[in-house]
């Protein structure tokens, strides 16, 4: 038997049998608990006039969306203030944040992986109506708590609101994005279930991000598998398969409650509430607290980002839990539009059409590999010549100013060749400095560790002494006869003279 919940919600295009209440709700209080909120009973309801139950000044820290979305997106509060035109930044400009509980709401509090809604609360006073931004909504046990901003200067007596009516509207672009992604996730997980690929977890960045959401699977997919699954999802979307919600009292969920994907994730502080199962007709039935599209046509399109497995591979690249990224609904369009622009931009960067991009990049990569190999062998040959040509007795000094040899690797190779023919007490000093670039590099090597160290120490002192105001410019150290350091700052005539002084002095010593 299906019960109806009084009072009825305003009519929308959502079919009447979307909401299927399988328990007698006659005893329920007027204040709707999370699970039975208007947004969870009719996902297309954009606004509702409802009564204020309680208000309190918010002591909560600024809202932060769970998951990776909070790092990548500007906070939801900035999104809310920008849609409402406040655009404020500092606390003094922002006004006061209030926590408001309502009898019912179209503002979804976050849950089940779906980020919270934002919106506007319209408060009508004696002479005017105030549009107060709802910056977010959180669930506290069974209650939905709206975070409502009262802008500075707004003459709203919040404390007088309980018992009065307000109108709340959801930020619809944000909601549709989250909703289509969430329904898309249920569909995708259901299609993957039929391939023995259970969803281990999922997460989505909040609007206005256009980044993909992911579901975590026991292994990676091949491109062919991903394309098949995407095709299957889009076939179901084209069929406009119906979606509805079964509502049961918690503890009376029916037969398959425990095996659900999302039942495992029901928060421990949600007790005494309702259990909702989202049913995609003939395809899936899973516990879910989110807002779900009334049929799959609202999702529009679902795209699976090609997995990291090489595109022609017939075996997946990973047998351990792996994220599969997807976009659905309006986000699929914005995500793919951006990808298309990047593709054109990449083509322009190397001067080929989009169709030629991949073969050209493969060719460039092959060339680069050959060039790198050639450069490496030339560098080794040059190091051998440089090391071989340096004096094998006393203190030899080699200075270079070439980008291609400005590294310890080159110095080390040259030093190794030099070392082969050097006398026991000989020391070689390498310096490398590029015009206008810091740091310069210094390497000292010799067979006699004590002698190498004394030359290195003298070089450090001399270079640090060039400009005493610059602090300690030489940083480094070493052991076993080889010492390396970086020399901060500009390398000029005085640095060259400092090194020359040490080399000449050590040679005389
Ligand atoms: Zn769900």
Describe the structure in your own words:
With 509 residues, the chain is an alpha+beta fold. It is 31% helix and 24% strand. The chain has 3 domains: 16-170, Beta Barrel (Elongation Factor Tu (Ef-tu), domain 3); 175-241 and 295-327, Threonyl-trna Synthetase, Chain A, domain 2 (Threonyl-tRNA Synthetase, Chain A, domain 2, 2-Layer Sandwich); 387-508, Diaminopimelate Epimerase, Chain A, domain 1 (Roll). The chain contains 11 helices and 19 strands. The strands form 4 sheets. The protein has a 6-stranded antiparallel beta barrel with strand order 2-3-6-5-4-7. Strand 11 (274-280) and strand 12 (284-287) form a beta hairpin. The termini are far apart. Bound molecules: zinc ion.
Question: Characteristics of this structure?
Answer:
single chain; 509 residues; alpha+beta; Elongation Factor Tu (Ef-tu), domain 3; Threonyl-tRNA Synthetase, Chain A, domain 2; Diaminopimelate Epimerase, Chain A, domain 1; 3 domains; 6-stranded antiparallel beta barrel; 5-stranded mixed beta sheet; 11 helices; 19 strands; 31% helix; binds zinc ion
């Amino acid at each position: 038997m299906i019960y109806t919940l009084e009072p009825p919600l305003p009519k929308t295009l959502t079919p009447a049998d979307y909401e299927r209440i399988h328990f007698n709700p006659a005893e329920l209080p007027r204040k709707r608990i999370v699970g039975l909120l208007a947004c969870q009973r009719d996902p297309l309801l954009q606004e509702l006039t409802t009564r204020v139950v309680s208000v309190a000044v918010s002591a909560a820290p600024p809202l932060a969306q769970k998951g990776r979305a909070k790092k990548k997106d500007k906070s939801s509060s900035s999104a809310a203030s920008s849609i409402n035109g406040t655009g404020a930044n500092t606390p003094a400009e922002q006004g006061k944040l209030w926590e408001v509980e309502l009898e019912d709401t179209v503002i979804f509090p976050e849950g089940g992986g779906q980020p919270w809604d934002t919106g506007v609360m319209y408060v009508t006073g004696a002479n005017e109506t105030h549009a107060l931004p709802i910056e977010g909504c959180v669930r506290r046990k069974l209650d939905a708590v709206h975070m409502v901003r009262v802008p500075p200067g707004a003459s709203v007596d919040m404390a007088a609101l309980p018992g009065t009516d307000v109108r709340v509207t959801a930020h619809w672009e944000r909601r549709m994005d989250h909703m289509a992604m969430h329904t898309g996730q249920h569909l995708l997980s259901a299609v993957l279930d039929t391939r023995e690929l259970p969803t281990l977890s999922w997460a989505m960045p909040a609007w206005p991000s256009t980044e993909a959401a992911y579901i975590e699977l026991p292994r990676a997919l091949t491109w062919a598998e991903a394309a098949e699954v995407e095709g299957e999802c889009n076939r179901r979307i084209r069929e406009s398969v119906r979606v509805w919600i079964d509502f049961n009292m918690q503890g009376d969920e029916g037969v398959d409650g425990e095996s659900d994907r999302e039942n495992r994730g029901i928060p421990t502080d949600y007790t005494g509430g309702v259990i909702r199962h989202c049913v995609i007709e003939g395809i899936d039935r899973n516990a879910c607290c989110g807002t779900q599209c009334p049929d799959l046509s609202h999702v529009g399109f679902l795209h699976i980002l090609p997995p990291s497995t090489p595109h022609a591979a017939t075996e997946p690249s990973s047998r351990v839990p792996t994220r599969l990224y997807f976009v659905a609904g309006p986000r699929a369009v914005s995500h793919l539009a951006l990808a298309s622009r990047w593709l054109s931009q990449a083509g322009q960067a190397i001067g080929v059409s989009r169709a030629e991009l991949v073969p050209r990049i493969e060719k460039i990569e092959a060339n680069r590999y050959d060039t790198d190999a050639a450069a490496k062998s030339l560098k080794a040959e040059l190091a051998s010549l440089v090391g071989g040509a340096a004096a094998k007795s006393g203190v030899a000094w080699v200075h270079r100013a070439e980008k291609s040899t400005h590294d310890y690797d080159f110095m080390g190779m040259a030093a190794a060749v030099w070392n082969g023919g050097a006398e026991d007490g000989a020391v070689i000093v390498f310096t490398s400095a590029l015009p206008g670039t810091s740091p310069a590099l210094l390497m000292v090597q010799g067979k006699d560790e004590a002698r190498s160290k004394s030359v290195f120490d003298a070089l450090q002192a001399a270079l640090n002494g060039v400009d005493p105001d610059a602090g300690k410019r030489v940083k480094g150290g070493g052991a076993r006869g080889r010492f390396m350091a970086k020399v901060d700052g500009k390398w000029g005539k005085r640095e060259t003279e400092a090194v020359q002084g040490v080399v000449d002095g050590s040679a005389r010593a």
